[in-house]
Amino acid sequence: MSKRDTVLKIFSALWTGVDGIRKVLHLLLLLFIFSIVFGAISSTVPRLPSEAALLIRPVGALVEQLAGDPYDRAIAGLLGDEDPQTLVQDIVDGLEYAKDDSRIKAVVLDLRGLRGGGLSKLHRIGAALDEFRTSGKPVIANADFLDQRAYYLASHADEVYMHPDGLLFLPGFAAYRNYFKDAIDMLRIDWNIFRVGTHKSFVEPYMRMDMSEEVRESTIKLLDQLWRAYREEVAAARGLDVSVFDEFSLNLLENARREDGDIAALALGFDLIDGLLTRAEVNTIIVGYVGADTENPDSYRSIDLDDFLAQTRLLKGDKSAKENVAIIVASGEILNGNQAPGLVGGDSTARLLRRARNDDSVKAVVLRVDSPGGSAFASEIIRNEIEALKDAGKPVVASMGSVAASGGYWISMAADKIYANSKTITGSIGIFGMFPTFQRSLAVLGITTDGVGTTGWAGQLRPDRAMSDDAKALFQLIIDKGYDEFISKVSEHRNLDKIEVDRIGQGQVWTGVDALGFGLIDEIGNLDEAVAAAAELASLDAGAFGRKTIEKELSPGEQLALDFLSTAMWLGIDPRSLISRPAKSVRDLIEIVENVLAPVMRFNDPKGVYAHCFCAFE
What we know:
Layout: H1 3-42, E1 52-56, E2 60-63, H2 70-79, E3 85-87, H3 88-99, E4 104-110, E5 114-116, H4 119-133, E6 139-143, H5 148-154, E7 159-162, H6 181-186, E8 190-196, H7 213-238, H8 242-250, H9 252-258, H10 263-269, E9 275-276, H11 279-290, E10 302-304, H12 305-316, E11 324-331, E12 334-335, E13 344-345, H13 346-358, E14 362-371, E15 373-375, H14 376-391, E16 396-405, H15 407-410, E17 417-420, E18 425-427, E19 431-437, H16 439-444, H17 469-494, H18 498-504, E20 509-511, H19 512-518, E21 523-524, H20 527-537, E22 546-549, H21 556-570, H22 584-601, E23 610-612
Parallel strand pairs: 1-4, 1-10, 2-3, 2-5, 4-6, 6-7, 7-9, 11-14, 11-22, 12-13, 14-16, 16-17, 16-18, 17-21
Antiparallel strand pairs: 8-19, 15-23, 18-20
């Protein structure tokens, strides 16, 4: 064999090997793509029995918008460690669909996992439960223990059951917080505070050790209104006189002594619940309505809310049409820049509003606001986009959730119309700024700061140097101007006298009822009524328009990655082996620290000016 033939044979063998590898890789690629496609189409929605109960199990806090980046949430869901939270709209939609679904014979409201939710959110779900009950189908509420929030929802059920060893506790509403002035002094921190508003309570913990009389007076007035509304609505839902409710809650200790400390029996005696039953006994009752589960005879036939919504939405399609009212949610603190859902980013929320403006199918917009405020600059960026929507001929209606105060009111005031729940917390028209310096703290450690600058302003805003009197005066001027801008815009948008706006401003917080009387809002109403008003402003025929939710979406790459992980699960591969994440205990600790530091550490307004409300009422 010649040398040339030998070389040719070697190259031929190499080519055959390379070609074989190419074919194998090609096959693997096809299998990969096929597995993704097959996984996507094989993730079938669970079948719904011909007769079943819709099982609604709210977990964590009730929210207007699920917090966190959609991709991160989806990954956490696949790994089984997503943060507990329940979307109010999901419960409302589920009840709406179930009302007319002949397969759903009852709703079971399992309230063991509910951990939070504003009164307006509870009211909205309560109204949806009442509407469902007009179908003649029963609602059965059940929990081992019932706190104040869970009991509000339970009161709207036909039957309310609690475990014999359970507890019903209705303490009322409160507003308590930590105060840091002494700690700041002991740490030798100069916490420079600039504010406008006699009732701007957010900064008080940094300048005193207790609640001021002005804030105490307005807060108790607000809490009394909320508590009165809670008592009246719960008593009406249970068919009781408010005096019965008051006797149970106000004289709890005396009444409990007569029952030897058995609060569950006490609640039953006051007709606040319908029975003290074990979980098995409750299951037996529900079996009587919908029949026993074929795979587990000890339980009842049911479908979970998430599965029911997945199936129903797949069959019905989305709610959009040729002409739509867009819904954009602004939930959480308002911060500058781009923020994940659960926070309101000046840039990211403005981008959603621009999408609505540039979408020819969108004829009007409802901005659903559930925010205590935050960055004044970010709030103004969002307000600018609302003005641009109106200039484009697309009316905007603001719909307030549990809280739309301070910056939350700032982003609402430019709307053509403002709707709020009677229990919405709003107002808090006032601003502040804070700039802590640590030069005295550093001095204790033997550290000083010295140097030179080209002007008297150079090096002024350093946290390791004391603020000069001129810097403090300048900062206060900026805050004063910001407040004047705030009340001027409220005066302009709401057609109110500026002096009157200042009177009801000053950082004071109001309920929706108060806000209506002052002219800060236009109507008491829910999200559906706000959508109807937006459609009317856009001259859309009732029943002929759709709803289009505009929110952050997954990128194609993120969707591909999720499909791959879903397919891996379908093939029996644990996705947790493919993704490294901190232990849940570590993440929980990080979350606690972040929650403590968030009021200060997350602030990122370019000018350090904030319109933020302390609205954490329990």
